[in-house]
Design goal:
single chain, 511 residues, alpha/beta, Pantoate--beta-alanine Ligase, Chain: A,domain 2, 12-stranded parallel beta sheet, 8-stranded mixed beta sheet, 34 strands, 34% strand, elongated
Length: 511
């Protein structure tokens, strides 16, 4: 029989207590760690949700301003006329963000920054905030203008096989594309009746976009790529240009109200009144664009278009080195003759409007723009320079403009043609044709025309295609689209589409 010492039993029981305490402490530490981890996880999840919501709110701010611009495309101040332009743009403009129940769950703050003068592109910084957590987005918003096309017409268009079209081409009627093209060619019609002066296929029904199958050079009509020929597509609205021109006059004169477009204020750097209330197609103003970003203004008292360029216009100098207005718009209530003052071209951004909107300017004819010589940018490709011309009537190339001729810019003929002048105004005889390759006409920019568009006429009864007597205008032409015009047109150039988000990115710092 084994004897048991009670003291030993008490000692064993006593040794269990420290172990139990250690165990409890360890369990407590683990529990606290797990609890902290759970709390941290919940906090992290909540923070992550708030961060995601802040980004969504920032995007909502961008979407709001897209909507705002589509209702007032010129307002970069979010409805606050007194806002001042700072380094980050106009702002800050703060808006509450509400959920579907109407509860305020955050806010976004906007900074609106213009880009080039009169451009349809703006940069919006939107800062979304939820419970102190912020996310920022920079977005470029833009709307396409009439300058989004190399050539756009309200009538049928024809590119001959010796005419190159680089860039988008559109007609509200139909396009005959016999020459090389690099961009989309679109028509608002499924089919159309080809005009009688459009060569082979005239007076026949053809698809909205087509080519003459007998043309095999420099591109073969039968084998060329036609995947970018689109028809039918939406029409361009030339009617709305009337209200656009009125808006441009208000911008140039700083006038407002229902009678602003009938007013005849005094001449300023941005507004030029008519020479006379009676219309005369041979009088108006000569604008010569200078290489230093200014312009020279002369009064034209007569045009004799059978004379050389130096003698064709009778002018009286009004002023030189006139600054281009800050908003870039010059509104002339009369005909405008346009050319550069030197081979250096024009350095700047400007839109020139020729329109007789005043009720006191009588006569049935609309104001025209006439090219009296080359009009070029100082730098053709960097996008900093832009020239716009909007004629209430037609845009013409004068027969004395010379060769080779080069014209840069975006031009609109609201109710007339964009053409080389086929007949002399002096005696109504046919004007001269230019048939040699070195006598080429180059156009770089955009054309929008209500009526006819052509820079050359060929007499179909002529047997010698290389005879100057068989042509009026330029046998060899090249039309190149300025891609910079797509979203950076000349100042306040009329828009054809709504604003949209062109690009956006998240930024990690606030303004």
């Amino acid at each position: 029989m084994m004897n048991t010492d009670p003291s030993m039993i008490r000692d064993q029981r006593g040794s269990m207590i420290p172990l139990l305490i250690v165990f409890i402490v360890v369990i407590g530490i683990i529990s606290m760690s797990v609890g902290d981890a759970i709390v941290a996880t919940f906090t992290s999840v909540k923070t992550s949700e708030q961060s995601a919501l802040a980004l969504n709110i920032a995007e909502a701010g961008v979407n709001y301003y897209v909507w705002h611009l589509n209702h007032d495309g010129s307002d970069l101040k979010d409805g606050n006329p007194s806002a001042i332009l700072g380094p980050d743009g106009y702002g800050p403009f703060e808006h509450d963000y509400r959920d579907m129940t109407g509860k305020v769950v955050g806010k976004y703050t906007l900074y609106i920054k213009p880009t080039l003068v009169g451009s349809s592109v703006v940069v919006v910084r939107s800062i979304g905030e939820v419970d102190g957590i912020r996310r920022s987005v920079d977005a470029r918003l833009g709307a396409m203008s009439y300058a989004a096309y190399a050539v756009a017409g309200n009538q049928a268009l024809w590119f001959g096989n010796n005419e190159t079209a680089n860039g988008p081409v559109h007609s509200n009627v139909g396009v005959k594309m016999d020459g090389p093209s690099t961009g989309t060619v679109s028509s608002a019609s499924t089919s159309y009746l080809v005009p009688s002066n459009h060569g082979n296929g005239r007076n026949t029904i053809q698809p909205g976009v087509w080519c003459d199958p007998t043309v095999t050079s420099p591109v073969n009509c039968n084998t060329r790529n036609k995947s970018n020929w689109l028809y039918p597509t939406a029409k361009l609205d030339f009617v709305r240009l009337s209200s656009d021109m009125c808006d441009l006059k208000k911008l140039a004169t700083s006038l407002s109200g229902p009678s602003a477009c009938d007013a005849l204020p005094s001449r300023t750097e941005s507004y030029v009144p008519p020479i006379s209330t009676n219309y005369n197609r041979n009088t108006g103003y000569l604008i010569e664009l200078n290489s230093n970003g200014t312009y020279r203004l002369s009064r034209v008292t007569n045009e004799r278009d059978k004379r050389p360029a130096a003698q064709a216009l009778t002018t009286v100098l009004i002023a030189n080195n006139i600054p281009i207005p800050a908003n870039g718009v010059i509104f002339v209530e009369d005909n405008v003759w346009l050319r550069r003052s030197s081979n250096a071209g024009f350095d700047g951004r400007v839109t020139i409007v020729a329109a007789r909107l005043s009720g006191s300017a009588t006569g049935n004819s609309d104001a025209n723009i006439v090219f009296a010589g080359s009009v070029t940018y100082a730098d053709q490709y960097n996008g900093d320079d832009a020239i716009g011309g909007i004629a209430e009537g037609s845009v013409e190339i004068a027969p004395y403009a010379g060769v080779p001729l080069e014209i840069h810019g975006a031009y609109i003929a609201k109710s007339g043609d964009f053409v080389y002048r086929q007949r002399s105004r002096e005696d109504n005889t046919y004007t001269k044709g230019w048939v040699n390759g070195v006598e080429k006409f180059r156009f770089f920019g955009s054309v929008s025309v209500y009526g006819m568009w052509t820079w050359s006429y060929f007499g179909y009864s002529c047997s010698n295609e290389n005879s100057p007597q068989c042509w009026q205008g330029y046998k060899w032409t090249e039309t190149a689209y300025d891609e910079n015009l797509r979203y950076n047109p000349p100042p306040s150039f009329p828009l054809t589409d709504t604003f949209e988000v062109l690009a956006w990115r998240e930024v990690l710092m606030r303004p």
